[in-house]
Write a sequence for this structure.
């Protein structure tokens, strides 16, 4: 009886030590995670001026990362030619025709929203050109929505990004 009592106390003590160590590690892990989240979303920027040179060089009215003026706006380059709801899985897709209206070969990303009868977005998709599209040339791409949508859902181009390819 004494031996089983001592064995039980040893097991209980070991279990308590493991639980304490686990809780201590979890507490430290949460503190480290909070520090990472705080630093990841820190919007103050660097305290010194280093790292901000890129922004200081922008002209008034110029957006960071804005494409160079290379023809008409890219949103005029893409049109939806077909908007379809798959009858088996009820997912939407949009066939898109892209005509490069710029003066340089370019790649395209077309963002599409699939909206219900009330105009609410039910899912989104995007389409990307596989190759560069020559000036005046046409490419056909497809944007696939994710998830089931109700009957009557329509396709809408939200944004077109054109990236001029330079040699």
């Amino acid at each position: 009886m004494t031996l089983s009592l001592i064995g039980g106390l040893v097991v209980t003590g070991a279990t308590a030590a493991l639980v304490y160590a686990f809780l201590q590690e979890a507490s430290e892990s949460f503190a480290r995670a909070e520090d990472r989240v705080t630093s990841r979303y820190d919007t103050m920027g660097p305290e010194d001026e280093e790292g901000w040179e890129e922004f200081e060089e922008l002209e008034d009215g110029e957006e960071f990362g804005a494409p160079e003026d290379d023809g008409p706006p890219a949103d005029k380059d893409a049109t939806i030619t077909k908007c379809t709801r798959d009858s088996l899985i009820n997912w939407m897709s949009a066939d898109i025709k892209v005509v490069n209206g710029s003066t340089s070969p370019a790649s395209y990303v077309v963002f599409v929203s699939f909206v219900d009868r009330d105009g609410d977005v039910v899912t989104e998709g995007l389409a990307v050109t596989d190759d560069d599209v020559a000036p005046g040339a046409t490419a056909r791409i497809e944007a696939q929505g994710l998830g089931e949508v109700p009957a009557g859902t329509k396709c809408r181009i939200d944004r077109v990004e054109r990236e001029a390819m330079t040699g």
About this structure: The radius of gyration is 28 Å. Strands lie at 78-85, 92-99, 106-115, 121-128, 138-144, 154-164.
